[in-house]
Amino acid sequence: MIQIEQLRYVRLGTRDLPAAIDFARRILGLELVEKADTQAAFRSDFRDHTLVYAVGEPGLQAVAFEVRNTEMLDTAQQLLEQHGYKVTRGDAAGAQQRKVKAYASFQDRGGNPIELVVRPLQSGWRYFPSRDAGIVGLESIALRSTANGADEDLWTKLFNGRVSDWIGDAAYIRFDDAHHRLALHPAKTAGVLAIEYAVESVDQLMQNSYFLQSAQVRTVHGPGRRPTSNQMFLTFVGPDGVLFSYVAEGTKIDEATHRPRQFARAAKSFCAWGSHSDVPEFAMVKK
C-alpha cells in the first residue's frame, strides 16, 4: 500500500498570471514567495508553497501528495503500473521547479493529474500573508471525477485513504485524523473543483465573508455548516472557474470508533443551515 504523508500543493494553469497573482494575494490572502515570467508560488503555512499558478491552459492542473522517501516512491510507481496506470518519473529540472527531492506523476481514472513528491521544501520563516485572512493552512482538495467508483478504489485500495462519509456517490477521504483531505465528486469532466484553506475560527470565516462581498467576489455556497465534517465553510469563485473555500472548526476522526456514513445527495446533506448553491457537485440544482 502507498502511504500518503500529507497534502502538499495544487498547481493551476492560467491564461492571465497577473490577475491570478492579484487574486491569490489580495482576495485569498496568501503570501507570494516566488514570482517568475511563467509561474508564481504562494504560501499558507509551514510548507514552502501550497498553491502555484503557471502560465498555460486552465485545464493544466495537478494536485501533489507527499510520500516519505524514494523507496516509497518506487513502491508507488510499481504498484500503480501493475494496476494499469501510466507513471512518469520526474526529471531533475522538474524536481527543482517543484522544490522537491524527487517526484512522479500519473492520472487517476477520471483524468486528474496527481503528483507524488519526496522531501518537499519546508520554510523556516513565519508565514506572513498579504492580508490577515486568518489562514492557518491548506486543508483539503475537492476533485471532479468522471470515474468516481474507480477513483475511490484508487485512493482506498492502492493508497492509505479511508472513506469518512459519502454524499450520494461523492466520497470524502482522509489520510490522517481530519475528516477528509480529498473529496471526489461525480462530474461530467475532470479537474480541480475546490481548494480549501482552514482559518483560525468562525470569526475569521465571517470576516472573510464580508470582505468578499465588499470586493465583489461571487460566493457560491455558504456561509454554512457541513453535516458530514461539522465544518463551517464559505465557498467562492477564483480565476478560471476554480472554487476556493475557507473552512473552520470540524470534527476529528477517531479511527477506533468511526464508521463511514451514507448521506442522501440532497442540498441539506451539503449544508445543515440550508445555504443555496448553484454548483452541481455541491447541491441538487433546481431545473
Describe the structure in your own words.
The chain has 287 residues and is α/β, with parallel strands linked by helices. It folds into two domains: 6-118, 2,3-Dihydroxybiphenyl 1,2-Dioxygenase, domain 1 (Roll), CATH 3.10.180.10; 135-282, 2,3-Dihydroxybiphenyl 1,2-Dioxygenase, domain 1 (Roll). It has six helices and 17 strands. It has helices at 17-28, 70-82, 92-98, 148-158, 202-214, 267-270, and strands spanning 6-14, 31-35, 39-43, 51-55, 61-67, 88-89, 102-107, 113-118, 135-145, 162-167, 170-174, 182-186, 191-199, 219-225, 231-237, 243-249, 261-263. It has a nine-stranded mixed β-sheet with strand order 14-15-16-13-9-12-11-10-17, with helices on one face. An eight-stranded mixed β-sheet has the order 2-3-4-1-5-8-7-6, sandwiched between helices. Strand 15 (231-237) and strand 16 (243-249) form a beta hairpin. The model has no long low-confidence stretch (mean pLDDT 95).
